[in-house]
Each structure stands twice: as C-alpha cells, then as structure tokens.
Design a protein that fits this description.
There is one protein chain. This protein has 24 helices and four strands. Strand 1 and strand 2 form a beta hairpin. The chain is mainly α and about 575 residues long. Helix 4 runs antiparallel to helix 5, helix 14 crosses helix 16 and helix 21 packs antiparallel against helix 23.
Length: about 575
Amino acid sequence: SSGSESSTCGCPHVERLRRAARRGPVTTYRLGRSTMLRKLLGKDLDAPTASEELAVVRLAAAHRKLVIEGGRVNTKSEAGFNACALFLENLDSAAKAMRLDAAPRSYRIAFTINYRALFPDEARTYRVDVLEASVEQYAVIWVNGDKFEFTAEAMRRAEALQKAWSELGVLLDRWNGTEQPRAGSPTAAAQAGRPSRSELRNALIALDCTWASFEHKYIAELIEIEEKARRLVVQAIEHERCLLLLEARHGTDPQKLQALPEYHEELKKLVACIAHLNSVANFRRKGRDDLRVEVYFDAVATLRRCDGAEQSGDSKDLLVAARMLAHDVVDSFAAMREYLREVERCLERVDPHLCNNVGLVARLVDWEESWEVGTRYVQHESLLGAICDIVAELRIAQRLAPSLAQMCEDCDVELFLVLPRIIWLRFLAKPAKHSALLKTILPHRFTAAQEGGSGLAIDSGLREFLEKFEAAEHSISIAQSHVRCHGTEAKRAAWELLVKRVVSGSGSKEDPFSSLSADARAAAEELMHDLERWSIELQRHCPEDWNQCSAILVQCLTGTGQKVKPGQFKV
C-alpha cells in the first residue's frame, strides 16, 4: 500500500494536471458560450455547467490514457498505475465539481490504525489498489503458507463495482466520441452524442456507492485475514507472558523452574510456537520447525556442568567450546523472548506476511542457527567432547606455533587450510574420541560395527591412513634422541612436532623436521603428503557440515560467539 501511495504522487500526471489547469480559462469560455447557445435554442437543458464540463473533459481525457489490456485496466506497470491514479484523482474532482455527496464511509472508524492512515476521514479517497482488487477478484489468498478466502459477498460487491466502472467508461467514451452506437439498438439515440448531466451524475453516484460498498467489505475482510495471519506471533506472546508470570512467582533459577510441570509445559509450547514462526518467516535460512525444547534443557545442563567443572579446577580451555555453544542456545532464546515482549506493544506494525518483518527474521535466523548447532553438538556428548578437545588442542597449538594465533586473529584464509589438518591429527592420535565427529562429516568412511567388536569401524583407506600415522609417530619418537621421554610423553612430543609442521607448511623457512633422521623424516613427509589429500576430502565431501564445524572452531578460538546485542528495536 505504501508503494501505491508514493507512485500515485509521481511527476508525470501532476504535470498533466497543471497543463490542463493552464488551458482552463480558454476552454471554460468556449464551452460556456456553446452551453448558453444550446440553452437559448431550447436544446439540451440537462447540460452540465461550464465548471462541470471542464471537470468532465479532464476526466474523459484521463480515461483515454488508461492502459487497457484484455479488456481490463492495467495497473501493474508503472505507466498503467500512474494513468489509473490520475483518472481516480479526476474522478474525485468531477464528483466535487458536480457537487455530489460522497457515499457514507463511517465504517472506516472501525479500521485498524494502519488502514486509518490510508483512509483518515470519510472523503472518497479512491485508491488504485482497491480498484485493482475489484478487477482481479482473487477469492483466495495465501499468507504464511495458510489459505484464506474472501466471502462470496465480497466478490459480489467487486462485480458490482466493475459494472459501475464499465458503465461510466461507456459514458466517457461517448463524451470522447469513441463509442459507436449499435444499429437498431433501442438506446442508439441515447448513445449518440455526449451524455447528459443527469447520466454523468447518476453514473458517478453509482460508482461511488459501489466503490464504498466494496471498500468496506474488502478492507474489513482483509483486516480479519491479517489478524489471523498474526495469530502465530500472538500465540507466542501469550506463552511468553505465562512464563513471565511463573518466573515472577517462583524466581528465575532455571533448575528450579524446569522442575515445575506448568513452567516446563509453557516453555515447550513457546518453543513450538517459535519453531512454527521460523518455518513460515525465516527465509534467510532453512526455516526448520523440528527444533525442540530439549535443546534448551541440555544447554542449561551443560552450563551447569561447566560451572561445576571450573569450580573443581578443570582446565578452562576444555570448557570453552561447551560453554560457548550452550550460551548461544540460551542467549538466542532469551533474545527471541525479548522480541516478543517488545512487539506486544506494537502488534499493529507487524506485517501479516511475517517474512517481511526485519526484526523478527533476524531473531529467528539467530535462533535457528544456534539451536541447530546445539541440536547437533550440545545434545550429543561424544561430539561435544570432540569439539572441546580440538579447541583445547588448538589453543595449545597457538602457543607452539604463534603464527596460528595470528591466523585466528586475522581470520586468514590459511587458517582454513590448517584446521582440517589439525582435526585429522587429533583423530589419528585419539581415534576413539574423535570418530563420532569425523563420522558426521565423512560417514562413508565409517562402516557398521560388528556385533561384539571392539575395534574402530572404519574402511580400509582410513585404516591405512591411521597405520601410516602410527608408524610415523613411532619413527619420530625414537628419532628424537635429545628428547628424554617415553610412552605418552614421547607421543605428545611427536604430535607437537607434527602440529608445528602442519601450521608452518612445506615452504616454511623453519623446518620442524630438520632434527629427524632420514628415515623418520621420510615417514613424516609421506604422512604430510597423505594428510593434504584427506584434508581436502574432509572439506569437500559435505561442505555444509564442514562449514558448520569449522565455523564453531573459529568462533571458539576468536571469541566471536559472544552475541552482539541488537540496537534499536525493529519489528
């Protein structure tokens, strides 16, 4: 509707009105003399006055400029819209010039604030979009994936308006001299020549009455449809209000609140409403409707475990990923709740086509992204453990190879070459711990575990790669004669050397393998060569899953997971 308003005020038709106004005095004088002459001769006593005739001339001229396609007024093109807007403007002017009372429009007082802005008083206010609706006569519209139907009465009134529009068009064609009377028609005499004042007057009154009748019914039903379309938001607001009341009564401790059956139920209903909203409004992502409240419960429980682990003295590096991912779930839900509280104050501003509400879509994008990651990682302990281990090892690697820390800080493209290498090294060093994570990205490399089997269920190619790593690790461990370490310490020293190599790359001035024997160096280089091939496969086999995994790692390393609070509220 706003677009229609701005188009109505376009320059071309305003200029035409000015030119017509400049020609007014000359035309008035000529038309006035012809009218007087006809009256002196006793003819056409029902002729319009000079001012009325000028208004009709302008109306007829505007009618000639309407863009007609297939027997209908075209309002879709810019030229067609502007021509129609100009005609409607002249239509109102002609009715005023003939001193015709406007049909009652007191029904507008019941319109919502948005429509009251478009129809502020009882003036005629002919709008192109209302005429367009009567022309198209769509009995069914779809909003947010739901089907809504206009009543048969609304369609009947649309047809009545089109009939009155057509009858006025016939009179204006006669005025313009383009309507050809049909031979033998009983109304041929009436069709010939310009229409009388009473004909024009009756046609304008009929059009105004049918217009007001259709406008009343159409806008009233449109308001009702919009209210139903907003119902998804209203339902979510109602559940949010219930949660607030329970929190005011029982406190805000999540653990205590979740123990309350009524709170648990309201939380479940609110999440279901948000998921439904997401499916119809979130066009920027997948629009998932299968994210459940259990994600939130598991995130809260994860945060509680992180707090307990920190108090017990566990390494914070091991908790960074778990805490960040769980916080994302909780914070995105809190932001969604805050939006619902804000939008409750201005529901009339909510576009019934929910995907058009910028603020709502932004909150849903954040919610879906955070909860999708939460569903995959926070709810699966083995995946979360693998991510936490990799993040902790990456932080250690930053200290071993300072260039990695710089890559993370700059988000350098080289970082995304290093990440898959280190993930593979972690898998090769601890396959049991990381197999669940690798299986989500490379499922074809993992086979079904045999009943009673205790080994890794991996294919022959991955097994060969694992064996090559173990041989290289052993060679490196025994080759470092200056390192007095054995067993686990030796393996750790070998792993750190490999990490330095995958970070620095093959063309680095500093060669981490320089201290190795020829055999150990050859084994290590062969492993590095194979590592590149496997790293490429990790990135390319399922790009979406890899991108999600790498984004989580970068988020945890750079701290970009901390949510930026939205600025000014947007609907």
